[in-house]
Specification:
This is WbqC family protein. This protein is an alpha/beta fold and 210 residues long. The chain has one domain (7-203). Helices cover 32% and strands 11% of the residues. It has seven helices and five strands; from the N terminus they run E-H-E-E-E-H-H-H-E-H-H-H. The protein has helices at residues 17-24, 81-93, 99-111, 117-131, 176-179, 187-194, 198-203; strands spanning 7-9, 28-31, 45-50, 53-58, 137-140. The strands form two sheets. It has a three-stranded parallel sheet, covered by helices on one side. The chain has a two-stranded antiparallel ribbon with strand order 3-4. Helix 2 packs antiparallel against helix 3.
Length: 210
C-alpha cells in the first residue's frame, strides 16, 4: 500500500537507496527542475561499493553557482568521466548476481552525448524506474517554491552532506565480507545485488522520515 502523497524530489545521479524507498512508497512524484544550483548534492555524485569500501563517483561540471538555474548547468565533457564510471562500476559489480543483466543498457546510458547535467540525471531516474520496475505517476515542476508542506517535500534527500540516518535492512553486498554492510549507497548497488527483488526491498523499508 502506498503510504505517501505526491512527493517533490530533486532528480539526482543514480540516487541513494533512500530516494527510491520514498518513491516506491508513493502514488506519484514531481521532480523539481526549476531551482537554482546547489553544491554538495547527489546531482553530481553517487557512492558505490568498491573493493576498498565506499567509493565516490563524481560528475565534472563547468563552473556553476547558486544564481544559476540547475537546468542550465553544463556537463564538463572534456574529460573521460563516463568511461571512468563505467570501469568503476564493472570493477565493483562484475561478480554481483545481476550486473550483467543491466550492463549494456547502463553503458549506453552513460555514453549518450548530453550537454546538460539535468538531462543526465533525469535519464538516470528513468533507467531505475524502468528496471525496478517502478510504476508511479511522474511529473516535473513548472515553477520554483521555496516552501512546501513537510509531508510532501523530500528535496532534502539530495543533500550529500546530510547527517540524517535511516534504518535500512541489510542485504548481501559484493564486498560485505571485507568491509561489512554499507547502507544507503547508490540504488545501483541494490539493483545489481537484488535484481527483480529490489522493488520488494524498497517497498518494505519501515523508514521514519520526520
Amino acid at each position: 500500500m502506498k503510504n505517501y502523497k505526491t512527493l517533490l524530489l530533486y532528480p539526482t545521479y543514480f540516487s541513494p537507496i533512500i530516494h527510491f524507498t520514498a518513491l516506491a512508497n508513493s502514488r506519484s512524484a514531481t521532480f523539481e527542475v526549476e531551482d537554482n544550483y546547489q553544491k554538495q548534492t547527489y546531482r553530481t555524485r553517487c557512492y558505490i561499493y568498491g573493493a576498498n569500501g565506499k567509493q565516490l563517483l563524481n560528475i565534472p561540471i563547468l563552473q556553476a553557482n547558486s544564481k544559476q538555474r540547475t537546468k542550465d548547468v553544463l556537463l564538463d565533457n572534456s574529460t573521460s568521466w563516463q568511461q571512468q564510471h563505467i570501469k568503476a562500476m564493472a570493477s565493483a559489480y562484475k561478480s554481483s548476481p545481476f550486473y550483467e543483466f543491466y550492463e549494456d543498457e547502463l553503458i549506453d546510458l552513460l555514453l549518450k552525448k548530453r550537454k546538460y547535467l539535468l538531462d543526465l540525471n533525469l535519464d538516470c531516474q528513468q533507467f531505475i524506474f524502468d528496471n525496478l520496475p517502478l510504476e508511479i505517476v511522474m511529473d516535473r515542476s513548472i515553477e520554483f517554491h521555496k516552501e512546501y508542506p513537510t509531508e510532501v517535500d523530500f528535496r532534502f534527500l539530495a543533500d550529500a552532506k546530510s547527517n540524517r540516518s535511516y534504518k535500512l535492512s541489510e542485504y548481501t553486498q559484493v564486498f560485505s565480507d571485507k568491509h561489512g554492510f554499507i547502507a544507503n549507497l547508490s540504488i545501483l548497488d541494490l539493483l545489481f545485488m537484488e535484481g527483480p527483488n529490489a522493488i520488494n526491498y524498497l517497498e518494505n523499508q519501515g523508514v521514519e522520515w520526520i
